[in-house]
Specification:
This protein is an alpha/beta fold and 270 residues long. Helix content is 50%, strand content 14%. It is built from twelve helices and nine strands.
Length: 270
């Protein structure tokens, strides 16, 4: 049901007249046991949950998510813990979209076939590997498709029409539009420019387009939610792990901030 589940999420949000809230946390941050509970708190307020696979050299990520990867790895987080967290979240949230997000080194080291099978068995719907562009997709596209996993691809402000067509022809699930030429956690760019590029991508594909990088406030989420099919929020949620102390405080902060984001998105098109 994996590929169908993401499509169902976007269809449900469309019927409700709103964008999807796509939330991100790094698995294993600050440790696997607490991370599981935090993921559950965030998942309860989200439409799609991106579960970050911690990696020692997260080149596309800013300092907030880099530090989260470091904390997770220092706590001994292994890919098996990522799959276990995914399994627990899936069991508690049968309708939630789940995407594993990270870097190619992890599935490459495991073997893409083994990785895909375990991701599917754990309950993932898709995989976003930021350093495997569509041109290099032969290494994993067919394997992911065989295991019914969507392959989420990235586009950016500098993406040409040729590259947009390439990503739309190779990707499935949704397009992740990186709203700025930089790393995660940077300041969001001009909303009108983001809207224009998003509309252009939407005109070239039937896939939903989710916008991320730089969305940190409910107001920004509402601004993006007025035109995007999904709003991706990452660094803002990850920062709650260190700006609060103890499971309850962090869980409450994640739940309340995600709820505020979702309500802002809900009202963006009313």
């Amino acid at each position: 049901m994996s590929k169908q589940r993401l499509a169902t999420v976007f269809e449900r949000c469309k019927i409700e007249g709103r964008s999807a809230l796509v939330s991100y946390l790094t698995a294993g941050d600050p440790d696997p046991a607490l991370s599981t509970q935090l993921m559950l708190s965030l998942a309860a307020q989200s439409d799609i949950l991106e579960i970050g696979m911690p990696f020692s050299d997260p080149m596309a990520d800013g300092p907030v998510i880099q530090a989260a990867s470091e904390r997770a790895l220092e706590a001994g987080t292994h890919i098996k813990d990522v799959f276990e967290i995914t399994r627990v979240v899936r069991e508690a949230n049968p309708d939630l979209g789940i995407v594993l997000m990270g870097y190619a080194n992890i599935p490459y080291t495991m073997g893409f076939e083994t990785f895909a099978k375990r991701a599917k068995d754990a309950g993932a719907d898709g995989v976003l590997l930021v350093d495997i562009p569509p041109e290099e997709g032969a290494i994993c596209d067919e394997i992911f498709a065989t295991h019914d996993l969507d392959r989420i691809l990235l586009l950016s402000p500098t993406s040409t029409d040729e590259r947009i067509r390439l990503a739309c022809s190779h990707g499935t699930g949704f397009i992740y539009y990186v709203s700025l030429t930089g790393i995660t956690g940077a300041e969001m760019g001009n909303v009108s420019d983001i809207q224009a590029k998003t509309a252009h991508i939407q005109s070239m594909s039937d896939m939903p387009v989710c916008v991320g990088f730089g969305v940190k406030t409910a107001e920004q989420a509402a601004a993006v939610g007025a035109f995007a099919d999904g709003v991706v929020v990452g660094s803002h949620f990850v920062s709650q792990v260190t700006s609060n102390s103890g499971q309850k405080a962090i869980s409450d902060a994640l739940s309340s901030s995600a709820s505020a984001m979702k309500e802002a998105i809900r009202g963006a098109r009313s």
